[in-house]
Specification:
The complex is a heterodimer of chains A (about 290) and B (about 270). Chain A has helices at about 1-30, 40-55, 60-80, 90-115, 140-160, 165-175, 175-180, 185-210, 220-230, 240-260, 265-280, and strands at about 130, 135. A two-stranded antiparallel sheet of chain A has the order 1-2. In chain A, helix 1 (about 1-30) crosses helix 9 (about 220-230). Chain A is mostly helical. Chain A has a single domain (about 1-115, about 140-280), classed as ABC transporter involved in vitamin B12 uptake, BtuC. In chain A, a hairpin with a 2-residue loop joins strand 1 (about 130) and strand 2. By secondary structure, chain B is an alpha/beta fold. Chain B folds into 2 domains: about 1-90 and about 180-275, Rossmann fold; about 100-175, no CATH class. Chain B contains 11 helices and 10 strands. Chain B has helices spanning about 50-60, 85, 105-110, 120-125, 130-145, 165-175, 195-205, 220-225, 245-250, 250-255, 260-274; strands at about 10-20, 25-35, 40-45, 65-70, 75, 90, 180-185, 210-215, 230-235, 235-240. In chain B, the strands form 2 sheets. Chain B has a 6-stranded mixed β-sheet, with helices on both faces. Chain B has a 4-stranded antiparallel β-sheet with strand order 2-1-4-5, with helices on one face. In chain B, helix 7 packs parallel to helix 8 (about 220-225). The radius of gyration of chain B is 20 Å and the shape is globular. The two termini of chain B are about 25 Å apart. Classes of the chains: A mainly alpha (about 290), B alpha/beta (about 270). At the A-B interface, helix 5, helix 6, helix 7 and helix 8 of A face helix 2, helix 3, helix 4 and helix 5 of B.
Chain lengths: ~290, ~270
């Protein structure tokens, strides 16, 4: 029973990280109908920057803040410089550009920081809480992770539902031409969507880095999990992304605990394929007409 | 034809010999007209005459090969679509064109964007001013929806509304920005007789407060609502003037009914007159 509780707690905190990655993917999808396969590379770069800042300045929170700002800027730059050119073309063009960017970023990171994974400090203690003499598999740092992700999700919901800027972002995403005619600066909304997405992505990188270490390819599995979580949630809904992330975290934690850690990535891919085959609109989608 | 009609100083908007070609097809051929402030101008013509292309040029969706647009005495060199609302031009689309998954109220609020005063940064930080801004837009949007008798559906999604109600919401979205020129692209499409009559009264009520350009197939609406009518055929202006005159113009009848039928109807109309 304690094992089940441990696995559940662990699933919630890893699920929170998947949820953050999923949120980043959902944001770019909502803004521009592009799945950003370069997201893993972008959050890898910002986490490397955080790592460098932390080791030179000695301050975790300075590195944390710098990474978030870099994420925001990187997202905006990638949208303006690269994606703007392929947004209106065939969807495949954007996929190829994003994959190309991922490879470029990984190569650059290898050249600058080397290919050996390096450790990354957690924000708070990773020693599990002491419950009745035993340490459970949930530490202050996990509490921090879960609270941050809940905060981000709530903040995004408030932005989209309660502000005019969120309203304009939604309008621009659904019907760019009509939105433009009504005076919405559609291009700016796209840039803002990417910047916000990359900000959330860099946050996910910081949260997961202590567990996976920092290296050019260390974040690849996280992106697969994040993508699976986003698809579970329907790719269009921030709430769905969070629920999908936590659900995936729990399932993978049980798989890892009861069946073996080597099966985790396989299980994630099986879930991804199953959802795409059975409910391509995500688990929470209502039946919608399909445009052919 | 051409540039006669009302004197230029009254014109709020004018097109000067607009020409648009798509490949070998000339969609608009040296089209010129003017519209005065507070006037309702009908744009009619058979299918493919270039009516929607004309609207697309005004909105900046299509760039003309030659010709110019004039807005309040100034030449619009290149129309930027996202500036239209700010300079006071609004358009409704054929069909409905509402944002899916935004409530009816939110749809109308997007149309009121030009009254917003808050930048991206303060909105993101959730500053009180952006909150006030949001409330002000909401209030303005609701007031416009009340005028168009669709306030009660404010929180519903467009796709759950009856078609005529969707059309009213779309009209509210165009009007909430308080345009000085309103482009209506087939506003009566899909409406029943009573609804068309109601729409005619609404357009009539707008007269005076803004200029309206109306592209429409329903002649009953055109004849009752418009002060003047411009008739396009194969991209050329073949007639313009008040509705009664245009209705009897042999060229117009020919364009709509074919040559022989046109002549006989024209002579019948002439007999009626005497």
């Amino acid at each position: 029973m304690t094992r089940f509780i441990d696995l559940t707690l662990n699933g919630i905190s890893t699920g929170a990280v998947y949820a953050a990655v999923a949120l980043a993917l959902v944001l770019t999808w909502r803004a521009t109908r592009i799945v950003n396969f370069a997201q893993g590379g972008m959050l890898m770069i910002t986490t490397f920057i955080a790592s460098s800042v932390i080791s030179t300045s000695g301050s975790y929170w300075l590195g944390f803040a710098v990474a978030l700002v870099c994420g925001l800027v990187l997202g905006a730059v990638v949208e303006r410089a690269l994606m703007r050119r392929v947004e209106s073309g065939a969807p495949l063009n954007a996929v190829i550009v994003a994959l190309g960017l991922l490879i470029l970023l990984q190569a650059l990171a290898g050249m600058i920081w080397g290919n050996t994974p390096r450790s990354f400090p957690p924000a708070f203690s990773i020693r599990g809480y002491d419950v009745g003499g035993t340490h459970v598999l949930f530490a202050p740092n996990d509490t921090f992770t879960v609270l941050v992700v809940i905060g981000v999700a709530a903040g995004l919901a408030a932005l989209f539902r309660g502000t005019t800027i969120g309203l304009k972002m939604r309008a621009a995403a659904f019907q760019p031409e009509v939105a433009r005619m009504l005076g919405v600066r559609v291009g700016r909304m796209f840039t803002l969507g990417w910047a916000l997405a990359a900000l959330v992505g860099s946050l996910a990188g910081l949260l997961v880095a202590p567990a996976v270490f920092v290296g050019p390819n260390q974040f690849d599995p996280i992106l697969i999990f994040g993508f699976t979580a986003a698809v579970l949630g329907g790719l269009d809904s921030p709430v769905g992304a969070v629920v999908g992330g936590v659900a995936l975290g729990l399932v993978l934690s049980y798989v890892s605990g009861y069946e073996g850690a080597s099966l985790v990535t396989l299980a994630a891919l099986v879930i991804l394929i199953a959802v795409l085959m059975i409910r391509p609109g995500g688990l929470f989608s209502s039946t919608q007409e399909r445009r052919v | 034809m051409g540039d006669e009609g009302i004197p230029s100083r009254d014109a709020v908007f004018a097109a000067h010999s607009l020409t648009v070609r798509f490949g070998g097809i000339t969609a608009l051929d040296a089209v010129s007209f003017e519209i005065a402030s507070g006037e309702v101008l009908g744009i009619i013509g058979p299918n493919g005459a270039g009516k929607t292309t004309l609207f697309n040029v005004i909105c900046g969706f299509v760039q003309p090969q030659s010709g110019a647009l004039e807005w309040k005495g100034r030449t619009l060199t290149k129309v930027r679509t996202d500036r239209l609302a700010r300079i006071g031009i609004a358009r409704t689309l054929q069909g409905v064109g509402l944002f899916p998954r935004l409530s009816a109220l939110e749809n109308v609020m997007v149309g009121a964007q030009r009254f917003r005063g808050v930048g991206v940064a303060s909105a993101l930080l959730g500053l009180p001013r952006s909150d006030r801004d949001e409330r002000a837009l909401r209030k303005r949007a609701l007031a416009t929806m009340r005028d168009l008798e669709c306030e009660d559906v404010a929180d519903r999604l467009p796709q759950t509304l009856a078609f005529p109600v969707q059309k009213r919401v779309a009209l509210a979205r165009a009007l909430v920005g308080e345009p000085q020129l309103l482009l209506l692209d087939e506003p009566a499409g899909g409406l029943g007789v009573d609804e068309v009559r109601e729409l005619g009264e609404r357009i009539h009520a707008l007269r005076g407060s803004m200029a309206v350009m109306l592209v429409e197939h329903r002649m009953d609406l055109v004849m009752s609502a418009c002060d003047r009518v411009v008739v396009l055929d194969f991209g050329r202006v073949i007639a313009q003037g008040d509705p009664e005159t245009v209705k009897r113009d042999p060229q117009v009848l020919e364009a709509y009914l074919g040559r022989e039928a046109g002549e006989s109807v024209a002579s019948a109309a002439a007999r009626e007159d005497t």
